[in-house]
Amino acid sequence: MTASPLLSTDPSVVLSGAGVFGDALADQAVPVAQVDFRPPLGAGTLDDALVRVLADPRRAAADAEAVRRVLAIRPQLVDVRPAREALGLEPGTFLHAGPPVTWDRASGPLRGALMGAMVFEGLAATPEAAERALADGTAPFEPCHHHGAVGPMAGVVSPDMWVFELADPATGRRAWCSLNEGLGKVLRYGAYGPEVIERLRWMSAVLGPLLRDAVRAHGPVDVGAIIAQMLQMGDEGHNRNRSGTLMLLRDLLPHLVASAAPSADIADAVRFVGGNDHFFLNLVMAAGKLMMDAGRGVPGSALVVAMARNGTDFGIQVSGTGDRWFTGPARVPEGLFLGSFGPGDANPDIGDSAITETCGIGGFAMAAAPAIVRFVGGDVDFALRTSRRMYEITLTENPQWQLPVLDFRGTPTGIDVTRVVRTGVLPQINTGMAGRVPGTGQVGAGLVTPPADCFTGALLALAEHAPALPGPV
């Protein structure tokens, strides 16, 4: 009787899931190959819709055209202006992050930011008075994305706030994002105390005009080129923007110093920008918005052109389905907390900043910034594996934005609804965490993925738009 090879040779194990079993085998020096397998989304209920979308004769050409448009955009910072000028915001109107939401469903940080914006605009004497007006519906608010703009975290933009204006020189497309306030107790995290309002007023009275004059004196700033350099210097473009902030300051500093503004104002502005590692994030967001808007409106394309959260709902928009939002419940991020804060203090995911992942950086470029794990959690191996995994759900690579540790491979770009559904791999997002109670501010930073409902809903809509198949599906 011949002995079984299992008894006469060293075992080699391929494992999917069951991490405890794998650890036990590794402790006994058994080689283990861990396979990151996930079942397709929908558990077989989406087969007909998936077949119909994949069989759409327009699909390959449509996806290729959508990503061609995205990659052709060259985002440049061309101006800094009040939102009332740039976006045409009327007094008493506000923009916010994420898909549409009503006051009764609004999250704590979104409520807090809207209350603070009312006080900042002089429309309410106190946050409490602002809350009453907002509950009565006397201060309308709608998504930034509906106005060619994006906003971080709560994303609230009011007429007197200043915004970065980015443009593509070839197409003339434009996109906007508010100026970054810094971390901690700031409006975008739902804080509205006196120090928050005072900072916003200084940003509108001093910082905004100084940046406007410096940008106009410098001429267009190539934001896309700065992002490319950031990825070579350890930033991933979402929760790590240190080198990008300093490169922007390098370009604008001579023009700030040469201006006729009071030297104390210039010093304050330089100190504020230089001391705020996240300042460049808002420019990255506007660049992402500019790029992804170029990919909209291609019939048959399953390219995701927006991912956004309002603190209650997570929503995506897809090239081939117009401006329709596909939503699911926003998840609470997992990560690291500030001070004595813990998971019970965190609000579900919020903000338009996931536009960075939508355009192929942020969580998709974690391999370029292994130090990011010190801020959002995980480890270096997780950062590397995450970027590699994102190639499985994207349509292309961006040759302008490269990951040095992956042999300068272009970042994974262009989330494909069909690939997300087929693989079960959800986009990885690096994010900050806002306190769930209005007025709290930032409580931490971490990692999150969208709810699967967004992608299954989008797939069903794409199937509705697809030509009918001959015979039974």
Describe the structure.
InterPro entries: AllG-like, OXTCase_su_AllG_h-dom. This is DUF1116 domain-containing protein. Helices cover 38% and strands 18% of the residues. The protein has 473 residues and is of the alpha+beta class. The strands form 6 sheets. A 5-stranded mixed sheet has the order 6-8-7-3-9. Strands 12-11-10-14 form a 4-stranded antiparallel sheet. A 3-stranded antiparallel sheet has the order 13-18-17, with no helix packed on it. Helix 3 (47-54) packs across helix 17, helix 6 (108-120) packs across helix 7 and helix 10 (242-257) runs antiparallel to helix 11 (263-274). The model has no long low-confidence stretch (mean pLDDT 93).
Adjacency order of strands in the biggest sheet: 6-8-7-3-9
| CATH topology group of the largest domain | Enterococcus faecalis V583 fold
Give the overall shape, derived from the CA principal axes.
globular
CATH architecture of the largest domain: Alpha-Beta Complex
Poorly predicted regions are none
Computed structural class:
alpha+beta
Strand content: 15-25%
Estimate nothing, just give the exact number of structural domains: 3
Most strands sheet: 5 strands, mixed
Q: What is the C-level CATH assignment of the largest domain? A: Alpha Beta
- Secondary structure tally, helices: 17
Q: Please give the alpha-carbon distance between the first and last residues.
A: 52 Å
CA radius of gyration is 23 Å
- Assembly state: single chain
Residue share in helices? 25-40%
**CATH homologous superfamily designation of the largest domain:** Enterococcus faecalis V583 domain
Number of strands: 18
- The pLDDT mean sits at 93
